[in-house]
Design a protein that fits this description.
By secondary structure, the chain is an alpha+beta fold. The protein is built from 3 helices and 9 strands; from the N terminus they run αααβββββββββ. The protein has a single domain (26-144), classed as Immunoglobulin-like. Helix content is 20%, strand content 32%. The relative contact order is 0.19. A hairpin with a 5-residue loop joins β4 (93-98) and β5. The radius of gyration is 21 Å and the shape is elongated.
């Protein structure tokens, strides 16, 4: 009887340990690397996202960032603080660009809003960067972050 309880306990512990090792936030959401391609980062990967030290720039009043999720191994771009007057200024936008093949996703800031973020690109063993545009009225800015 004691041997059977001991064996059952080991089996339960083994299954529990295996389940914990597999259930990362990215895998639980069903997105990792190439399976994140074109998906919404807010749904899948934003919980552990970072902005690399070379991954942010100011374009006038607007802030452009390259965002990266270590658990998803995916990147996307975000623009914030991008206020504008549609009648007088061009629409601010941001793009994530994967350097290996030129794959890009772009978002434009909706009228009445101040920011947006792109869909994700697979970032396993490749580099990506963010680029953006902001029209401050009297002047326009464009630029790119460093690659990560």
């Amino acid at each position: 009887m004691k041997v059977r309880n001991w064996a059952t306990s080991l089996a339960v512990l083994g299954l529990a340990a295996a389940g914990t090792a597999i259930a990362t936030p990215a895998n639980a959401a069903g997105c990792y690397g190439s399976s994140c391609e074109g998906k919404d980062p807010a749904t899948y990967c934003q919980s552990d996202a970072i902005t690399p030290s070379n991954g942010a720039i100011w374009l006038g009043a607007a802030y452009v960032e390259l965002r990266y999720s270590p658990s998803c191994r995916a990147a996307w771009a975000r623009i914030s603080r991008a206020t504008y007057v549609p009648q007088d200024q061009s629409t601010p936008w941001v793009t994530v660009h994967r350097t290996s093949d030129g794959k890009e996703y772009t978002c434009s800031v909706p009228n009445g809003d101040t920011g947006c973020y792109t869909k994700m690109v697979n970032d396993i063993d490749v580099k990506s960067y963010a680029k953006g545009f902001y029209d401050g009225g009297a002047r326009t800015w464009s630029g790119s972050t460093g690659s990560y």
